[in-house]
Design brief:
Elements lengths: L5 E4 L6 E2 L1 H14 L17 H11 L6 H18 L1 E2 L3 H10 L3 E5 L4 H11 L8 E3 L12 H10 L6 E5 L2 H9 L3 E5 L5 H6 L4 E3 L5 H4 L3
Parallel strand pairs: 1-4, 1-6, 4-5, 6-7, 7-8
Antiparallel strand pairs: 2-3
Helix pairs in contact: 1-3, 3-5
Length: 216
């Protein structure tokens, strides 16, 4: 391993098992505004940030995406996530192994900071558990643009070629590849063929399979 290498983790569907619960909670929140959303409506917008995630579904039903609507979804998520969302199996062990081996670690999510902090709570981690936390609040262009991953690598003090990305969404895989990084797809949300078609260098079904790809 070079002196500085990093693993940049997407959050939803990678660090926490939240994709299905988030869709369920978001559908509940939109229904509070009279939008008859179903959890399945959110699938095309996974990994693209909450403006696209919430706004895309609202638009399908002819509703206007507003700051009030977005805030209500966040409030609902913060209120209910502890009852619905769990850490991904093996995530704490993987993070501990990487830290012990000297890797730098980042959370790099298109979600806004308030949701990222709720997910850190679910992980039982503080912000200092990562060398960098980059959220959708920190960049203008969300995934599939590379900005989030480029900023995460910069904050970790590593070059793009020394960063690995762990992703469960096509938009995130494309973002990592656009940033010049190697990407491991996790099949928590999408199938291996879809992740590979998006450009993933490797695909795993479980986080305990990641270490072997990193030479641990």
């Amino acid at each position: 391993m070079t002196l500085r290498q990093a693993v940049l983790f997407d959050c939803d569907g990678v660090l926490v098992d939240s994709e299905a619960p988030l869709a369920r909670i978001a559908a509940m929140a939109l229904r509070d505004f009279g939008i008859p959303a179903e959890p399945s409506d959110f699938a095309p917008f996974v990994g693209m940030g909450e403006d696209a995630y919430i706004g895309g579904v609202a638009a399908q039903y002819g509703a206007v995406f507003t700051a009030e609507l977005k805030q209500h979804v966040y409030d609902k998520y913060v209120e209910l996530c502890d009852a619905f969302v769990l850490p991904m199996p093996g995530v704490r062990e993987l993070l501990a192994a990487l830290r012990s081996a000297g890797w730098r670690l980042a959370m790099a999510t298109s979600a806004d900071q308030v949701k990222a902090m709720a997910n850190l709570r679910i992980l039982g981690m503080e912000e200092h558990g990562f060398d960098a936390i980059v959220t959708g609040d920190d960049v203008l262009l969300k995934k599939p643009h590379p900005d989030i991953y480029l900023e995460a690598a910069r904050r970790c003090g590593v070059a793009s070629q020394d960063a690995w990305v762990i992703e469960d969404a096509e938009s995130g895989v494309r973002a990592g590849k656009a940033a010049g990084m190697r990407v491991i797809g996790l099949t928590s949300t999408l199938s291996a063929p879809r992740l590979l078609a998006a450009g993933a260098d490797a695909v795993v079904d479980r986080l305990d399979q990641v270490a072997s790809h990193l030479g641990l």
